[in-house]
Every structure is written in structure tokens, then in C-alpha cells.
Design a protein that fits this description.
Length: 272
């Protein structure tokens, strides 16, 4: 009886990098497909930038004069600017699941799922596309903050790291939105849940005020909130506030991976 030849171990080793490169290529392809949609509605980038600008110009400058929130030697507007960058990314990403439900209703999602690409590549592509969309808002907030006199760093490496933090944070929250979409299956339900959890996520973070002044129960929620670590990393990079970068980036990376896994597992429910 003949025995099928077994591939040498070197072939197995060579196949793993190829598989990884193939997966990254498919993730990049899905990401580019998502970003091409912006060409049909470029006004979205402008309209979504209005709210964070209002937070900086109105809320930030008003509370800077009241001096009601203790931020140490850091001016409140400087303290607030990184939090508004994280907030703008959150507000964009948390409703990203509505788009995937629309694609389900239009029959696009079914066509995407029958391709040989793994579902995780599709979800990751959409997640990182949401992150890239938020980069434009982060740039707008940084420019407006600089015009308002906020002391920001202009170190190119730190600014690049800021964009990485924003993309990771948006990737997680867009995956959270897609996970909820896989559970509720309807746009109106997702819209209601998104509106219900957006402000609690924002206020249960260090975006507006230090964790030290929070009540004990809110401190627990804040430490479990990925937005807190996103804000912490942004403050460290932009205004030099001390932080643990290993913890901040570690939480954001783990949260993004966990979000991709959860959304991928529920993607099939949308296609039924």
C-alpha cells in the first residue's frame, strides 16, 4: 500500500509566513474597500469634526475659567484635548455596526462571506478602516487645540504613536458595535444601544476628569474601560503626562484582538 508523501518540516515553516502575509493582505484589501466609500460622502469627515471642536472651544475654555476640576499643574484645556481626541474616535466607531447591518440588508455581506477570506479578515478590515477614518478628526482636534494655545508635542514619532493609539481604540469600539449588531440584528436596536452606552463609556473614563476624584464604584468601571487607557496614552504622548505605555498599549491591543474575535464569531448570525 502506497503512503502519501509528507511535506518536509521546512515547508510547514515557509507556509506560516505566507499565510500570515495572505491574511494581512486581505485585511488591507477590506480596509481599502471601506475607505473608498468616503469618496461618495466626503462631507462626513467635516460634519463629524464639528462636535469635538465644540467640546474644545466651549466646554474646554469654560471649565478652564471655572477651575473646578483639579488637574495639577496642567491647564484644563491641555488636559481635555487628548480626551476629546479619544471621544471623537469613540463616537465614530460605536455606530459602525449600523453599516454592516445595512450591508446585510443589501445582500453585500452574504457575497463577502462566500469569499475564501476568513471572517476575521473582514471584521479586522472594517475595524481598522473605522480607525483610519478617525485619524482625520484627530488631526483636526490637534490643530484646533494648538490654535487655542494647548502645549502639544510636535515630535513626529510621538504624533505617529498618537495615530496608532487612535486607530487601536476605534478598532475596538467598532468591533464592539459589530458584536452588538450580531446580537440585535436590527439598525434601530443598535442605534438605541449605541446611544445608551456612548456617554457612560465617555464619562466612565478619564477623558474629562482624573480618576482620583471619581467615587469608588466609578473608579472600578474606569479601570475596566479601554477608553481610559486610550486617553492615558494620548495624554502621555501629547502633553507629557506620566503614564505606563506598556499597560496602555497592551490593553488596547488585547481589546482590539478580543473585539475582532467576538465580532467574527457573531458575523454569521447577520448573514442568516
Amino acid at each position: 500500500m502506497s503512503v502519501a508523501p509528507v511535506a518536509p518540516p521546512s515547508a510547514w515553516v515557509d507556509s506560516r509566513p505566507r499565510a500570515a502575509l495572505r491574511l494581512l493582505s486581505r485585511i488591507g484589501t477590506f480596509c481599502l474597500i471601506e475607505l473608498q466609500k468616503l469618496r461618495h460622502d466626503r462631507t462626513e469627515l467635516i460634519t463629524r469634526a464639528i462636535q469635538p471642536i465644540l467640546w474644545l472651544v466651549i466646554f474646554g475654555q469654560t471649565f478652564s475659567r471655572i477651575r473646578a476640576i483639579p488637574t495639577g499643574n496642567v491647564p484644563y484645556l491641555d488636559y481635555l484635548a487628548p480626551g476629546i481626541i479619544a471621544q471623537s474616535a469613540l463616537f465614530v466607531a460605536i455606530f459602525y455596526g449600523i453599516q454592516i447591518i445595512w450591508e446585510r440588508d443589501a445582500g453585500i455581506l452574504t457575497k463577502l462571506l462566500v469569499t475564501p477570506s476568513p471572517r476575521s479578515a473582514l471584521v479586522a478590515g472594517k475595524a481598522f478602516a473605522a480607525g483610519v477614518r478617525t485619524i482625520s478628526q484627530a488631526i483636526v482636534v490637534i490643530i484646533v487645540a494648538a490654535l487655542l494655545g494647548v502645549s502639544l508635542t510636535w515630535n513626529p514619532l510621538k504624533l505617529l504613536a498618537v495615530l496608532v493609539v487612535v486607530v487601536l481604540g476605534a478598532a475596538f469600539f467598532s468591533c464592539l458595535s459589530m458584536t452588538i449588531a450580531g446580537l440585535v440584528l436590527r439598525r434601530d436596536r443598535l442605534m438605541g444601544i449605541g446611544q445608551a452606552i456612548t456617554m457612560p463609556l465617555f464619562f466612565a473614563s478619564s477623558a474629562l476628569y482624573p480618576i482620583a476624584i471619581m467615587p469608588a464604584w466609578l473608579k472600578v468601571l474606569s479601570h475596566a474601560n479601554p477608553l481610559t487607557y486610550e486617553v492615558s496614552a494620548l495624554r502621555g504622548l501629547l502633553i507629557g503626562q506620566p503614564t505606563n505605555y506598556w499597560l496602555d498599549f497592551g490593553v488596547l491591543i488585547v481589546a482590539a484582538i478580543a473585539g475582532i474575535c467576538a465580532a467574527s464569531a457573531l458575523l454569521s448570525r447577520l448573514a442568516r
